[in-house]
């Protein structure tokens, strides 16, 4: 009997060991990701499913599910990280018309993202912005230069945006035939979204004609879904035809999933679901909003967390648990696709070493991309390139020595940045360069900082005290003495002071200010995190969020009176910390001293424009010409116009380097400047790229991805989404600089093209053969552009880009360029069937160097 009992016990133990060793379906790396996800979801409780549907997805240890952050950014480098490689802002990359180089840029970005993530995993760290789902690219159409986020896009043209976006996704996600995705890319913001920023949480867009929807606003999204297999789509904030985009059954259900066959996941913009009841008032509460969003097709919610009420929505019959399962299966499928649920040895991307980050190869790539963004708009009497043997060159302007401007927005921080002043200095001998800031970006005043009138503990300046917690709690890590305006950031892995955490810290800055004269003093404070200014114990100024927003406070002070100044700062959430603080008397910006200072200069390089501190996403800032991150005026700020005018009147030759993420109306500058170089926000090597162009070490070949207008009168109302009168495709007046325009230091001749056929059926494409010659004295690159016009269709675009090709040619060289134009080249909206298709009729092919009619030649094509 004992023997039988022993044998039975042994058998049971063996069976138990066999069962425990058995691999469950979701753990089997050989099964398809969707099958694994379906099995895993069947084992989850409703509460656990909801946890996985939020951008910060907490771990579920019993099933081996790790913490995962859906929200990371990689707009032009792995964002909110440091140090990383920082490439030019996307609108600048679009100016390159080089989608192949864009692929290499984002292949590098995804390498750095994986490498950083591999290091974070080794440290057991999982934070927002540190994960493998990156919400890039932004393929909205930059329909109006006033939109602050247009810098994040690839311009105003649907075809160019599609080409660039496809390569971004391919670079981020890795080879299509790989078992695991390198990253998950995200096409945003779906759809019909491009400002204003101030109304995006309440706006209801109802004026979009079907032609505009299908020919302008949707093509790039369709291209990314069907041609690059993008794994995520982000729905936008606003309503489209009365339904919020994240609860829009037509957008997410009919168009995205049914018509286009998108089978992956939809993420909400941050706070977009709570907007259903807080902004749009289309849902009564979080339960109804969450049910509406999920049933419409939204799978992951970013912040706000109305999704916490999904169990209530299920209990009240607003939604069924099987609908929740559909979303969770979609999102878990993508997590399996990343390999983050599998052992590292199975996933090749986990082997990418940290040494790729900020590698020399990536720096060279950033420089090459920076060079290709450079867009020469004017060059009177061939003043450029400049000679390095000039006796004196004056470099002036508010962006000359502005390093952070080059980083754009949604950025990381590079290990090293070459700003424009340093780039120019690197080309010349010591003593050749005269530098002066000359003026502010927007204000007609300059702040004379008063730190020399501040003392504490018998020492000049401000005492800084730091704690490695967010509550100013002992022990103190370090105290420091600061004698110049505060400008700190943890981006680039920089500490505010020695021994202070990069995250989870607080600081106090204290001093006694004793002015020598009675006067009006202005205090300026900005930062990410939480910053508050106290004067004599009273809170007078507060700022802080995930964006660095400038604030100001004016106070009349009396001579020989002591004022206790204190700034309290806390790093918050997972945002990188930054703090800027200064105060002093503001004096008018006058240019007599500047003119005298540069009187011996052979040429003045004025580096101005605007900056990402002025244009960007939903910024609570109001300055002349700017509101909420958008622009209310598209001209160069008046103080800069006046400065350039003063230099011109003094007889100086002026080269204007304009830095902006959007088009600037610069009619006076075309008259007052000898040359104009559009430099965008050109990344970590931007200063070197600018200098290379100015001094002829690189021949510029950038072409505008947006129209540069003459004035505001050429623009329709910002709130209108009708394309009538917008962009080169529907504009009938003459712009300042047209879409596709860009000069070089050589000349090209685009010869007469031939088409393989001029009569085709609607399923045929053609081949266009174009001779191109470099007729100048320098090697250079031409950007050949092909546009299409549908004749006898008054509602169709004036012309629309359908092909382009960069053609590098040595001086005197010729090349016969062959462009294959598929049948869809001739697709336009057909109002009869309400679809985009090729219809019989007459068309024109327009080919040449820009969208301007004077730069184009034509061939007529008939479709039968």
From TrEMBL:
Q: Which family does it belong to?
A: Belongs to the glycosyl hydrolase 3 family.
Which Pfam family, just one, is annotated for this protein? Answer: Fn3-like
The record's PROSITE patterns line, in alphabetical order, gives: PA14 (PS51820)
Question: Which protein is depicted?
Answer: Glycoside hydrolase family 3 protein
PA14 domain: residues covered: 457-599
Q: Please give the Gene Ontology molecular function terms for this protein.
A: alpha-L-arabinofuranosidase activity; xylan 1,4-beta-xylosidase activity
What the entry lists under Gene3D superfamilies is as follows: Glycoside hydrolase family 3 C-terminal domain, Glycoside hydrolase, family 3, N-terminal domain, Immunoglobulins
* Highest taxon listed in the record's lineage: Bacteria
A single Gene Ontology biological process assigned to it is: arabinan catabolic process
PANTHER family attached to this UniProt entry: BETA-D-XYLOSIDASE 5-RELATED, SUGAR HYDROLASE-RELATED
> Which UniProt keywords are given for this protein, alphabetically ordered?
Hydrolase, Signal
Q: Where is the signal peptide?
A: 1-21
């Amino acid at each position: 009997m004992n023997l039988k009992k022993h044998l039975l016990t042994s058998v049971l133990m063996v069976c138990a060991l066999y069962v425990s060793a058995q691999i469950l379906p979701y753990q089997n790396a050989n099964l398809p990701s969707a099958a694994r996800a379906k099995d895993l979801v069947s084992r989850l409780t409703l509460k656990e499913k909801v946890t996985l549907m939020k951008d910060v997805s907490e771990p579920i240890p019993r099933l081996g599910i790790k913490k995962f952050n859906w929200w990371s950014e990689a707009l032009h480098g792995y964002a909110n990280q440091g140090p990383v490689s920082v490439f030019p802002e996307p609108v600048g990359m679009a100016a390159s018309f080089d989608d192949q180089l864009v692929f290499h840029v984002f292949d590098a970005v995804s390498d750095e993202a994986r490498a950083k993530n591999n290091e974070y995993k080794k440290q057991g760290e999982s934070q927002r912005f540190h994960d493998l789902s990156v919400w890039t690219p932004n393929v909205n159409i930059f329909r109006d230069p006033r939109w602050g986020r247009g810098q994040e896009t690839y311009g105003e043209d649907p075809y160019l945006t599609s080409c660039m976006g496809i390569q971004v996704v391919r670079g981020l996600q890795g080879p299509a035939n790989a078992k695991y995705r390198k990253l998950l890319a995200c096409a945003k913001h779906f759809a019909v979204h491009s400002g204003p920023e101030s109304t995006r949480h309440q706006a209801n867009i109802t004026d979009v004609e079907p032609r505009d929807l299908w020919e302008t606003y949707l093509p790039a999204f369709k291209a990314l879904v069907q041609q690059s297999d993008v794994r995520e789509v982000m729905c936008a904030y606003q309503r489209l035809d009365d339904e919020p985009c994240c609860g829009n059954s037509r957008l997410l259900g009919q168009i995205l999933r049914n018509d286009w066959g998108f089978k992956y996941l939809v993420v909400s913009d941050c706070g977009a679901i709570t907007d259903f009841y807080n902004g749009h008032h289309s849902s009564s509460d979080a339960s109804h909003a969450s049910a509406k969003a999920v049933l419409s097709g939204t799978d992951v919610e970013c912040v706000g967390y109305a999704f916490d009420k999904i169990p209530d929505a299920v209990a009240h019959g607003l939604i069924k648990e099987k609908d929740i399962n559909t979303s969770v299966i979609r999102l878990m499928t993508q997590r399996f696709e990343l390999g983050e649920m599998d052992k590292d040895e199975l996933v090749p991307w986990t082997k990418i070493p940290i040494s790729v980050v900020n590698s020399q190869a990536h720096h060279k790539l950033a420089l090459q991309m920076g060079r290709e963004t450079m867009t020469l708009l004017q060059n009177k009497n061939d003043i450029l390139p400049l000679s390095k043997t000039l006796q004196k060159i004056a470099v002036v302007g508010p962006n000359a020595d502005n390093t952070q401007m080059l980083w754009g927005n949604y950025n990381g921080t590079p290990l090293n940045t070459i700003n424009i002043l340093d780039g120019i200095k690197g080309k010349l001998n010591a003593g050749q360069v005269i530098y002066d800031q000359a003026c502010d970006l927007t204000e007609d005043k300059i702040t004379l900082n008063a730190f020399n009138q501040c003392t504490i503990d018998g020492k000049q300046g401000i005492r800084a005290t730091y704690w490695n917690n967010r509550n100013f709690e002992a022990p103190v890590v370090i105290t420091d003495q600061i004698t110049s305006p505060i400008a700190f950031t943890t981006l680039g892995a920089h500490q505010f002071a020695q021994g202070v955490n990069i995250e989870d810290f607080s600081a106090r800055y204290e001093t006694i200010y004793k002015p020598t004269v009675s006067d009006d003093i202005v205090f300026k404070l900005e930062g990410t995190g939480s910053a508050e200014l106290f004067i004599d114990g009273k809170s007078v100024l507060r700022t802080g969020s995930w964006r660095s927003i400038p604030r100001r406070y004016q106070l009349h002070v009396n001579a020989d009176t002591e004022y206790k100044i204190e700034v309290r700062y806390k790093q918050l959430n997972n945002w990188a910390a930054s703090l800027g603080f200064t105060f002093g008397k503001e004096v008018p910006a006058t240019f007599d001293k500047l003119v005298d200072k540069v009187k011996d200069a052979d040429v003045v390089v004025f580096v101005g424009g605007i900056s990402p501190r002025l244009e960007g996403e939903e910024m609570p800032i109001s300055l002349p010409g700017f509101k909420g991150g958008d622009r209310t005026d598209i001209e160069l700020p008046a103080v800069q116009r006046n400065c350039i005018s003063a230099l011109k009147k003094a007889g100086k030759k002026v080269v204007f380097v304009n830095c902006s993420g959007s088009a600037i109306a610069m009619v006076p500058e075309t008259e007052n400047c000898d040359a104009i170089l559009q430099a965008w926000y050109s990344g970590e090597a931007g200063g070197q790229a600018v200098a290379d162009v100015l001094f002829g070490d690189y021949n510029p070949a950038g072409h505008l991805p947006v129209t540069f207008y003459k004035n505001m009168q050429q623009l329709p109302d910002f709130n209108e989404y009708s394309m009538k009168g917008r962009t080169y495709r529907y504009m009938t007046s003459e712009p300042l600089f047209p879409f596709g325009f860009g000069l070089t230091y050589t000349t090209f001749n685009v010869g007469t093209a031939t088409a393989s056929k001029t009569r085709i059926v609607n399923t045929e494409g053609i081949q266009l053969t174009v001779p191109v010659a470099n007729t100048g004295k320098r090697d250079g690159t031409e950007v050949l552009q092909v546009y299409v016009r549908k004749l006898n269709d008054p509602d169709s675009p004036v012309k629309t880009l359908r092909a382009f090709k960069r053609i590098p040619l040595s001086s005197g060289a010729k090349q016969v360029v062959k462009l294959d134009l598929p049948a869809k080249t001739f697709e336009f909206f057909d109002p009869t069937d309400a679809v985009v298709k090729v219809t019989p009729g007459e068309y024109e092919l327009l080919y040449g160097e820009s969208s301007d009619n004077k730069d184009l030649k034509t061939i007529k094509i008939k479709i039968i």
